[in-house]
Amino acid sequence: MASADVLQRLLDANTNRIANVGTPTTASDATITDNSTSPQNPAAAASAGASFLAASIGHVHQGVHSVHADALTNLFGDVQLVSCSGITLSSAGNAITVTAAGGAVNKITLGEESQKYSTTNTEDILAEYALSFDDVDFGVAGNIQARLVGIVKVGGGSGTYNLRVGATAAGATTGSTIRATFTTASTTEVSLQNLGSAFTNPTGVVIVQVCAINTTAATKSFIRGFSLSIG
Which residues, 6 or more positions from 69, have their beta carbon under 8 angstroms from its beta carbon? Predict the structure, then answer.
């Protein structure tokens, strides 16, 4: 006598669905699809799984679909972050840390177009600013650098131009430190610059000064179109 299963379906199921397959309980059992359980999200470790049910062909895992930089092409598969000048990458566990070296980002920049000059062999303050160092991220451990740029000449002797940071009071250089400097003996205009050594962010409101001094008394040291940047 034919079984109920044989009566309900063709033995050749090449183009037909197979009905009345029971829930599988052992590996290699005929199986059915699970169309009600959402697939699991990608995990940190691979797992073969323990279910005997088959996944629906239209199932979708939740996760990052692609990665791209600005408006560039989407990237799929293994994506690598690459360090560059001033930027260092490190990882610990599942955390990636991006570190910017001092002076690479977020600079304070000031410029002065008009000509200024020192008239003595005593250092004169040619420009003075009060700057807040609290609102800028200066990178690794607060280390920053200062750059002085200017168009300079002297009336004689040799002129030295200093970018000073940290005076204890306005109008004097007391307590300040030279963070960038250059010297010229040219009597015709030349463009010079200097990037000083790294120093610790002083934080707070700090006095920044551009100063000049000549080796010869009563001799002018000129500077114009100058700028300073700190970062």
Answer: none
In whole angstroms, what is the distance from residue 30 CA to residue 57 CA? 17
C-alpha torsion angle, residues 195, 201, 206, 209 (rounded to 10): -10
Q: Where are the domains of the chain?
A: 1-63, 108-230
**DSSP state letters, 114-143:** S-EEE-SSS-EEEEEEEEE-SS----GGGE
Q: DSSP secondary-structure letter at 166?
A: -
Rg (CA), the chain: 36
Separation of alpha carbons 30 and 13, rounded Å: 13
108-230 folds as Jelly Rolls (2.60.120)
Residue type at position 167:
A
Q: The tokens 């002083």 sit on which residue?
A: 202
pLDDT tens-digit series, residues 96-118: 888 876 544 467 888 999 999 99
Q: Are 223 and 116 in contact (CB under 8 A)?
A: yes
Cβ contact 208:230 at 8 Å: yes
Residue recorded with tokens 């600005």: 70
70-94 pLDDT, tens digit each: 888 988 888 888 888 778 889 888 8
Instruction: Identify the sign of the CA torsion 109, 177, 115, 195.
Output: negative
- 3 state DSSP class of 188: coil
Cα–Cα distance, 206 to 167 (Å, whole number): 7
Residue 178 identity (one-letter amino acid): I
